[in-house]
Amino acid sequence: MKMEKDLLSRLIEYGKSDVYPFHMPGHKRRTDGGFTENFPNPFSVDITEIDGFDNLHHPEGILKESMEWAGNVYGADRTYYLVNGSSCGILSAICGSVSHGGTILMSRNCHKSAYHGVFFSHLKAEYIYPQTITGFGIQGGLAPEDVRRMLINHPETEAVLVVSPTYDGIVSDIEAIAGIVHERGIPLIVDEAHGAHFPFGKEAGFPVSALGLGADVVIQSLHKTLPSLTQTAVMHVKAGFADLDRIDRYVHMFQSSSPSYVLMASIENCIRWMDEAGRHEMMAFGGRLERIRQQLMEMECLTLVDGVKGRCHVFDVDRSKIVVSVGKSGLTGPELQERLRREYRLEMEMCGPDYVTAITTVADTDEGLERLCRAFMEIDLDRKRSAEGCENSAGSCVGKNGDNAGERSSGIVDNGMEKERVCGWPEIAMTIAQAMDAPGQPVPLDDCEGLVSKEFIYIYPPGIPIVAPGEVLKPELVDEIRKYKRKGLPVQGTADPEVEAVLTVADRGNMVNETGKIEG
Q: Among its keywords, does the record have Phosphoprotein (predicted)?
């Protein structure tokens, strides 16, 4: 079979195009930034563990020194270079913090890699559910009081894992959560994959890194928001509540046995540049962001997601994530993303049903940011001319943990918009491992209501499961999956690439009847 066009040719063609990347990696394909000044042709430095270059799995020389230096930059007791991305760190942190078959408390909006860690160690996962900021369609923060309540209800919990910031830049109150978790004598793991720039941006008004707020294990993807190559990440560990030796063992299990020296050099180079010049660059970047955000606030049909701090347990917001809701424009998220791609040659990081997310970083150019701002403003004006009565509306809060108390306490009332996921969080019938290890049978999507999923179903990106193995496919969840498919979102995870059928648990013994439906 002959390919119409090979991957390398397509990449070269794309690299020469005028498409501007508002997606990861954070270096934005630039070769003219100061962060690439001394970086050589990767083929000339692509080596293996030869004399004088140490071994990442048994560091004694230059790699040991480099990681100790990085730990000093970040204020960690141990910093690990990860060439398998943040997923490697998340897996290592989970398996290194919770005993086999134990219980972990985690936010339900964790990345799929966290669920893989739960599967590998046969863990029981209990969940903290973020509220949804309706109207915007994005998830809010985590309530510290929900963490406390869940730990009281589940005293067997061995570790807590939360995501902050989220894919959309929502930051939770990590300091308060850490204090609650530490009262139990257990570690707090923070997936800060999208906040690798936080340690260098405090003076520029960016959120404080979880590492400085009491978290015990923090995982950051350098490649997402900093000028570093794809797959590069770091994991920081602090002594005290975390089991350093156990985590260390798992890092070496999950990390590639042939780590790329090019990627390790990219990690070191990125941290050095950010330590030496990054804080100054972040100040300038923050100023550029503020200017375009102020302009985008003037839109009348589209809506810049802003002003949510203090609502729905949102403790802080990463303003480098430009999240634009379709608002009253009459567009869907995929339609807005396609217009940006087709008419303006701008590639977004992702879209949801009703919004798009652009990742901006310190490597973005003035020209790129101006193109983004101009595109949104022109689309907004076009929709204003073609639609009557465009009006922006603020989001309200909807949650599962209790009774929407966050909505009342924030003073936000229901404005009549759809309350996404009010009943949409799945019911757990069995653990992820029990479901994945059980016999399965494919069932058409239209017939699987009430059955137990044996598969993950998620939109990627961001890779947060709509349904995880062991969870019941409730009617509203099946409807949600259908809605995402109709809107053209990338629904993935099932063995059936078209997601017309779902692999369900065929036999749960006394827990289901002969049809696989939940008893009772």
A: no
> What span, in angstroms and rounded, lies between the C-alpha atoms of 132 and 139?
4
The CA-CA-CA angle for residues 23, 332, 115, to 5°, reads: 55
Helix, coil or strand: residue 454:
coil
Give the orientation angle of helix 366-386 with respect to helix 279-296, to 10 degrees: 10
CATH fold, domain 35-274, is Aspartate Aminotransferase; domain 2 (3.40.640)
Q: What pTM, to 2 d.p., does this model score?
A: 0.92
In degrees and rounded to multiples of 5, residue 304 shows phi and psi of: -70, 125
Task: Report d(CA 513, CA 232) in Å as an integer.
Answer: 47
Burial of 192 (0-12, 13-18, 19+ CB in 10 A): buried
Q: CA-based Rg of the chain, rounded to a whole angstrom? A: 23
Q: Would you tell me the crossing angle of helices 244-254 and 86-95 to the nearest 10 degrees?
A: 130
> How large is the average pLDDT for residues 71-99?
99
Q: What is the pLDDT of residues 219-264, one digit of tens each?
A: 999 999 999 999 999 999 999 999 999 999 999 999 999 999 999 9
Q: In the CATH scheme, what is the code of domain 283-386? A: 3.90.1150.150
pLDDT at residue 176, rounded to an integer: 99
